Amino acid sequence: MAGGLLNNYYDVVAVILFCIGFTTLFLNRNLVKKIIGLNIVDTSVYLFLAAKGYITGRAAPVIKDGVASAEAYINPIPAGLILTGIVISVSVTAFSLALILNLYKKYETLDLDEILRLAAAAKEDE
Amino acid sequence: MPFVRNFLLFSILLPMLCGVVSLSLKPGAARRLTLVAFAANIAMSAALLAHIMSAGEGFVYKMGAFPAPFGNEMYAGTLETLMALVFSAIMLMSVIGGREDVERDVIARKQSFFYLMSSFLLAAMLSIIYTNDLFTGYVFIEIITLTACSIIALKEGGKPLAATMSYLIMSLVGSALLLLAIAVIYSITGHLLVPDLSRSIDALMQSGDYYIPLVVATGLMTAGVGIKCALFPFHSWLPDAHAHATTSASSILSGLIIKCYLLLLVKVYARVFTLETVASLGVGPVLVVFGVAGLVFGSVTAIRQRDVKQMLSYSTVSQVGYICIAIGLGSRAGMAAACFHIIAHAAAKSMLFTAAGGLIRASGRKKSYDALRGAARRDPASAAAFICGSLAMVGIPLFSGFVSKLYTSAASVGTRFESSAILSVVVVSTVLNAMCYFPVVACILAKARDAGGEEPSAEAVASKRAEALETGAASDCAEPRRQGARAYAPVGHKPSYVVTLAAFIIINLGLGIISQPVLALIEKGI
Known about the structure:
- Chain A is mostly helical and about 130 residues long.
- Helix content of chain A is about 70%, strand content about 0%.
- Chain B has one domain.
């Protein structure tokens, strides 16, 4: 068991990072910290995928010195997934930050519970 | 390859293209372009459905004709094309039906954005319906997250913004779980395409390797979808998000968007894991338990609401629970019943939100039951649609809700669950639904308090308030009463609005009366 954990230390670190980020995203009341938590979560999944795609002793999948055999290179698909994931994570982060900025202008706080309380207490704007 | 098969790709690309173009147009032109694109989508989906029915089986569409391990695949069977047809039609009707509210709720400069968002939502939902690749599914789920959040935030005011934020956070939590689930599944199977995944998961189950990671991945995926479609106890974001959006957005969010996540769950269970594997992984009972809890909690909270849009939103929570019960039964019949209820609830709930929008407009833009008193006299068309929707949600025979209740009960026979338990849940939900909807129907049918149309005298108002206080009613009752006493003039409608409501009613009745062909298509497709 312990040996397995030691061998797969990338996975262990990825899971620990995921838990840290997930707890922050889920439980922290500060909106900016929530978004930081989201980025940690995404990064941990990328680490997990990258570790799964790596094969010891092989090179990055860019053809070098005319070696075309697949045996010489690592699995390129996780890298492709990570690139797509990074694009998604950037756009989600940008959108969230824009939303947070608007909320801060309106309520002058970054505390989500406080914002929800203020919004619920506000007079019906219909 | 017959040319008609390309409609699959066109029906995704067309709304995307039209969304981008509509951003550079004036709101009126953007609306017309969007409506034309949605109508074209309906025609293309119908042509595709006709093609598949005549061919007798579905087909795999390879993007750019690259073969499987390199290219991206989409699969169109009867289930997918039927859903695409229904989703395009309801999208079109929701956008037409909420037009006046969009013009009022969204400032003129941003109205083109509304049409951009609705086009993108349709494109992303169709992609999730058709895709055969889990990671593509994840990408489009994130696109839906962003566009659905922006479509809520388009409405002016602090409440929509705050609701958007809590929706966004919960959606991101769900996405994170889904992404991890997909990563785990990829790491143990090495595949992302559904047919390959299905084969290697079958092999894993037979050899017994990686059993625990498989259970974990299934759990993560179910939890992720559960959060994103507001399954109890992750429903806290839904009522605010759906109730504070503009009318069209509410009907799209409540009717379609949560359904496309549930549809993805059905597809993953039926195609990737196969139903036998899902049964042995033990997800079914969990879904049924949370479904029952959500159904009861959602309905009971809906009964206590005094705001029509909040009531409709809590009712969505209970209906999601209902669909999850049908999925959790774990049989093919259960999946078919879930898919039928996805269609039935999409049609009924979008109609209810559209009609509620009309009634609210006729009641001085107030959403409380008191303000809606007598709305049927001011706006008979919307009231007729609202009553039809209520009957469909309660499950009166001849309406769509009855058929899905019938099939869910029938599907529970022969599963590991007691049919009598499922049957009693269905009965309880019918009673609770009636208790949610009939007070509103009674309110809109009732006579308005001041038949003469004059402002009541100050004494009358004062005595009414005193009476309200005396009878022990809470002070929040007094204010709506005063407002409810004002007379609102009958409203006129654009012909397009009345036609849309008529089409909604026809769809709901049609689903209830000729349910057999629809169900046959669903069962064939699963």
